[in-house]
Write a structure and sequence with these properties.
By secondary structure, the protein is of the alpha+beta class. Helix content is 41%, strand content 19%. The chain is built from six helices and four strands, in the order αααβαββαβα.
């Protein structure tokens, strides 16, 4: 993992406040040159600190208002192939490998309950998927955020 200095953390914090900020606006806000900001952003991007910008798209606006979490139990020896097949299911917008009784937690977006039922059936039809359990997402109560982590990192680096 790369080490982040105060300037990196200030830049990340500024982007967390306004992810659409231009390089010029960031430079002015942080009292840095445009070239410094561009170089820092390029270095940060190479480290993998920035996640997919798709995260800021709303599935509901695209016509998929129903979101659910599907807990997937699989035959462990087939895990790499199963993950590859799950990646081809367009309704799966995110998935995590887990420890414990569930192997994979997938977040899905669907048009309606029937679409969710069909999506779950497609997941279950993948050879090696042993069981699924689906929970409807009633609403996002804490959106994805990193501002608090930036604050913790800043305090730990000082």
């Amino acid at each position: 993992m790369p080490t982040l200095d105060r300037i990196d953390l200030d830049l990340i914090d500024a982007l967390a406040d306004d992810h659409r900020a231009t390089v010029v606006a960031l430079a002015e806000k942080l009292g840095l040159s445009r070239n410094t900001v561009q170089a820092r952003l390029a270095r940060l991007e190479q480290t993998g600190i920035f996640l997919s910008f798709e995260r800021s798209l709303s599935p509901a606006v695209l016509g998929f208002p129903l979101q659910a979490f599907v807990s997937i139990s699989v035959r462990q020896t087939d895990l790499p192939r199963i993950i590859s097949e799950l990646a081809r299911v367009p309704e799966i917008v995110q998935a995590h490998g887990l420890s414990g009784t569930v192997d994979i937690l997938a977040r899905v977006a669907c048009r309606d309950a029937r679409h969710l039922f069909d999506t779950d059936a497609r997941i279950l039809s993948i050879d090696g998927v042993e069981r699924t359990e689906t929970s409807l997402a009633m609403g996002e109560v804490i959106p994805f955020r990193t501002g608090g982590l930036v604050g913790l990192a800043r305090r730990e680096n000082l």
